[in-house]
Amino acid sequence: MSNPIRKLVGQTAIYGLPSIIGRLLNYLLVPLHTYYFAQTSDYGVISELYAWVAFLIVLLTFGMETAFFRFLQNETDKDKAYGAAFWSVVGINALFYLVLLYFNNDIATALLFEGHNEYVVLLGTIVMIDAVTALPLARLRAEEKALRFATIQMTSIGLNIALNVIAMVFFFSPQRPEEGILFILLANLLASLSKPLLLYDSIFNVLFVRDWSLYKRMWRYAIPLVIAGFAGIVNETFDRILLKHLLYDPSVPESLNYAESQVGIYSACYKLAMLVTIILQAYRYAAEPFFFKQMQNQDRNTVYVRVMNIFVAMVCAIFLLVSLNLDIFKYFIQKEAYWEGLKVVPILLLANVFLGIYYNQSIWYKLSGKTQYGAYITIIGAALTIAINIYYIPQFQYMASAWATLIVYATQMLLSYWLGQRLYPIPYNVKKFLLYLGLSLLLFWIGRQIHFTNALVNHFLHNLLVFFFVAFAFVLEKNNLRSSNTH
User: Is the distance from CB of 308 to CB of 357 less than 8 angstroms?
Assistant: First the structure.
């Protein structure tokens, strides 16, 4: 029989294909947007709007994707578990949209988008569509219909990219940047609408569930996940929102423009740290159902440990690849005005390494049903994020946000490990983790000391260090990818 880890790697590649290609194509949107928007502040507006998307998607999916995977293992009627999860999400989104339509002017004013309530309505509509289609997509993952899942996601992503390019190249005027923002939102809306059209059979043939006991059990399981997810998004995106609101002083002329400009610079450079999160997102699509299916496997802890070893090696390699090749990656950002923020990239890359490890560890409270601990950990992280950013942003601007991200993810990783070893112990190989992390940091430091006048020599030596790390990790992990009799 094939090794389950090899199956996970294969499914990560399939499920992650639309995510990886989509994010890479979104990389191409960074030079597109930073080229056509004359001011860094205009890109800052887009970045803040999409920071709010991350908050809303957690709230409006209401943890039902994970709840669906969990209850699918226990319920004899699989359609019933899906129906309860789906109708829960539909009800929450219907309520949200009513509030949005009634209060959109007030919301726009509170977010410092006064006079642009259309941003709020369009953004809310996009998130509602994405939230409702999240459950049908989760069902495809549970049924291992990876090809259809990838096709739907790629269609939506491709449409979004194409519409962005058409709108910005042929219709955008630098004298009217607010129109460019609308073009981007409308492109996203049309792309999101393609998903319910392609998922019609999973949306219009859903069993209406009247088992209120099942709803209550699923909600009880999901609520701590929502709190954890919401607090997690505070850690991921709230710094961009805080940057704008803490740097804005209504008594200072052009203060709003400066604040939005800082958000734009930080967000553009943050994109360069996204390669770790691209892999993490792809991995999460495959890993969550995979981990739950291993619950009945007597050797599940061995599988979890091996997965963690491979994952840590992979994200550390990406950390090295990007951080030692910033002189190349920076050209994805078209205007040099953004390059002053490149110093945050290695910090954010390392932060996302810790985030990936924390996500792997989080399986202990999902498998054990003790999801409240996930909420506790991320609430602590969210409190730290808010405190560090509020205290240090006025003095250090976006550098405070970068270091806050690193400190918070490292704290969450350590807390999760400490609690997990006491409540649902998985014997992770900590020595190997420290070996990979320590070696990658050492090679990064060595790479930073290399300063030849010939840029090609620098790039060659930097990538020789990356190759050395990958080869070293491969030698240590190659046995985990070979076939075995482990189920």
Answer: yes
